[in-house]
Write a structure and sequence with these properties.
2 domains; seven-stranded mixed β-sheet; 422 residues; alpha/beta; Rossmann fold; 20% strand; globular
Length: 422
């Protein structure tokens, strides 16, 4: 059964529906229609650990748009980290809630299922915020449609950096992989394997597991266990990793692990102990330091506290871009429809144009630019978000490690195979 809730910021809308600030001391009428924005987040399922924080990042973006002068109506659905449940939930958002645009989702398998079965057939633009599978780039259903975008890079980038982390930094020459058998796990496993082997490494075993949470992963771990493997690469979601990392340690199968964005987890420290994880590292797409990121981090911390959950800035940026595109449509005198929003996504996100960054102050100026008929270039908290012809973006890849019972960022890397090697 789908789960959703409409969260319309009534106070903000009452304040801003009647007007938005310009440079004068007075108010100007705001005749623009609120955009109905579907938010698909994993509040339950194997990515539930990350869902609440990502939901908060979306709500922060809605608040910023509202206070900048454009009311946004978010309608939230739980993906349950399950393609079937998510598809039913989005069907409801489209058929009964009348959304103009969908923001989501976290899992690539969910994003692909929703795109193929609902948003593309119903001509609804979709911006994914943490779906990194390379399969999304050339999704056949989106050919000639241009309806599927994302604010996170494909794993063709993360897989390269993950291979370099394993081979150059950790010194692994032979690894086994335990991966989730979906678009995300298959895609990242393939890219990592190709690049690790190109560096001279060997894959002892690559064992798939199902998306559904199993009571035990001992059988899969036994298949992954070889005499030569230096470490186990955990290309799964945190719900799976919590269980099989614990079992791998308890049964003395592995004591060295390599993590990715899906298996990055603060809760894992509580599950297996900080001393077990000390010095172990992983990767995830991330953001370079910028004023935009600093504003987002400060506002998020003030509203919800600190969080190490990945892709919070990407969630925020997806909502902001969707809102700016909807405003741009109406500032240009066009009717607000899903397709007109799609046609304005690159107009507000891509260079050239007046630079706009995260935060209420800059967004307010951005809305003014749009009312004046000017182009804007939103430089997000997650970085430059210039959508290419496939709807993809490029951002750095972070290398992070468990240190002193915390997750600590080590560096931001530019994806490059065999960098510095002959």
């Amino acid at each position: 059964m789908f789960k959703f809730v409409s969260i319309f910021y009534l106070i903000n809308i009452l304040l801003f529906i009647s007007g938005c600030n310009d440079d004068s001391n007075g108010q100007v009428d705001n005749p623009f229609e609120p955009v109905k924005m579907g938010l698909l987040v994993p509040l339950t399922g194997t990515l539930a650990e990350k869902g609440q924080a990502r939901y908060h990042a979306a709500l922060l973006a809605v608040q910023h748009l509202n206070e900048a002068g454009y009311p946004v109506e978010p309608i939230v659905a739980d993906s349950e980290t399950n393609p079937t449940a998510a598809t039913l939930a989005v069907q409801n958002l489209v058929d009964n809630e009348g959304i103009h645009i969908l923001i989501g989702s976290s899992a690539s398998s969910v994003t692909i299922a929703v795109a193929e079965q609902v948003t593309i057939p119903r001509q609804i633009p979709q911006i994914a915020y943490s779906s990194t599978s390379p399969l999304i780039t050339d999704l056949a259903a989106d050919e000639g449609q241009d309806l599927l975008f994302r604010t996170v890079p494909p794993d063709t980038k993360q897989g390269i950096v993950l291979a370099r982390l394993a081979y150059d930094m950790m010194g692994y020459r032979d690894v086994s992989i335990l991966y989730i058998n979906d678009a995300y796990g298959q895609g990242l496993t393939q890219v990592f394997t190709e690049n690790f082997q190109a560096l001279g490494g060997r894959i002892s075993a690559a064992i798939a597991h199902n998306n559904e949470l199993a009571p035990s992963y001992v059988a899969e771990l036994q298949q992954a266990l070889t005499e030569t493997a230096d470490a186990l690469v955990a290309i799964s979601f945190s719900g799976h990793a919590h269980l099989y990392i614990k079992e791998a340690i308890e049964y003395d199968f592995f004591d060295q692990f390599l993590f990715v964005d899906g298996s990055k987890s603060e809760q894992l420290i509580e599950v297996v102990g900080a001393e077990v994880l000390e010095g172990l590292c992983g990767t995830n797409p991330s953001s370079s330091y910028s004023e935009s990121l600093e504003i987002f981090n400060m506002d998020y911390k003030m509203a919800y506290g600190e969080s190490q959950v990945a892709f919070l800035a990407n969630v925020y940026d997806a909502v902001i871009i969707g809102g700016l595109a909807a405003y741009s449509v109406q500032a240009n005198g066009e009717a607000l429809t899903p397709l007109t929003i799609r046609d304005h996504l690159r107009k507000v996100a891509n260079w050239p144009g007046k630079q706009v960054i995260a935060g209420i102050k800059s967004l307010k100026q951005g809305l003014k630019y749009l009312r004046q008929g000017l182009n804007i270039n939103y430089v997000g908290a997650s970085g430059n978000l210039d959508f290419d012809e496939k709807g993809d973006v490029v951002t750095p890849i972070e290398i992070w490690c468990y240190q002193g019972g915390e997750i600590v960022s080590q560096s931001l890397e530019v994806p490059c195979l065999l960098c510095g090697k002959k």
